[in-house]
Amino acid sequence: MPATARILPFPQAGGTSAVVCGLGTWVPPRVVPNAEIAARLDTSDEWIHARTGIRERHVVDPGMATSDLAVEAGQRALKSADTDRVDALVLATTTPDRPCPATAPDVAHRLGLDRCAAFDVNAVCTGFLYGLASGAGLIAAGVAEQVLVIGADTFTTIIDPDCRATAAIFGDGAGAVVLRAGSASEPGALGPFDLGSDGQDADLITVAAGGSRQRSTRRPAEPGAEFFTMAGKAVFRKAIFQMAGSAQTVLRKAGLGLRDIDRFVIHQANARILNGVADMLGQPVDKFVRNIDQVGNTAAASVPLALDAACASGELRPGQRVLLGAFGGGLTWGSTVLRWPELEAV
């Protein structure tokens, strides 16, 4: 169990809880199959799929930014929730349109949500879970009645296209949910959250250049420092350990057991990581939703994209108990549980 994890209080019966009432996603239309990048990376479609579980990914066209994906997903989530107003917008992303200002206010403006609170959250691949917790906190505090939470990333804009370790893994996409104030007993109500971090391993997942640490030197960045890097083997082990531990923590807080969970929807980082978490929890792999073969690792968009895919296929049905989980740079991790609601498909 991660010693550094902190558990947020579980909503008391009769209190105000955040309830999922809308879901929407969007991926760029351009599809890049493994074969298109295999020759450049001196590998093969078979090798990429065997190592990652990925067959294709969606990639932004030149000039397309994270906000463009976020707006599309946000529109669909608002339509799903049958609302055109929210009190706050939380955008989870590691690839903002610009270092300053935050991307969320622009997304809110383009969605017609002027004057609502809007801010970015950067917890890398755990961003959507941190965003959900932020939205739930705004509702619990009485600051907002409805919150739009978006996870959107264009990771293909920050990876070295010739790096075999990362170029085949990542794709671009966005997913969003609308949260509303409601009762802890109704379908869609978010349960307890487990959120944690371990900054001593911050360099395992990083973009070295572009921040104040590098810029304050007044020297040009080292060649390649502008690209995303990841210590694959170390991240692999920590991702399995932390996501499994976080799942156990949040279930204990919720008063549930592993057998009570119908579906696990966790960050689609790598098919072998999904299998590793299943093994560590002693759960059958078919309880773990996966769409990584079609979209790759989409960072903060990963969990909502997997939710949408599972809903569309009928794998995820109203009334099922679902555990959401993720692990990302920081290092960060998080989990929550809910009973899946009836949602209008968009």
How would you explain this protein's 3D organization?
Its EC number is 2.3.1.180. One of its GO terms (molecular function) is beta-ketoacyl-acyl-carrier-protein synthase III activity. The chain is α+β, with helices and mostly antiparallel strands. The chain has a single domain (1-341), classed as Thiolase/Chalcone synthase (Peroxisomal Thiolase, Chain A, domain 1, 3-Layer(aba) Sandwich), CATH 3.40.47.10. Helices cover 30% and strands 23% of the residues. The protein has 10 helices and 14 strands. It has helices at residues 34-38, 45-52, 66-80, 104-110, 127-140, 212-215, 232-254, 271-281, 292-295, 302-313, and strands at residues 6-7, 16-26, 31-33, 56-58, 88-92, 117-121, 146-154, 172-183, 193-197, 205-207, 228-230, 263-266, 321-328, 332-339. The strands form 4 sheets. It has a 5-stranded mixed β-sheet with strand order 1-9-14-13-12, sandwiched between helices. Strand 5, helix 4 (104-110) and strand 6 (117-121) form a beta-alpha-beta unit. Helix 3 packs across helix 4 and helix 7 (232-254) crosses helix 8. It is globular and about 55 Å long. Mean pLDDT is 94; it is low at 1-14.
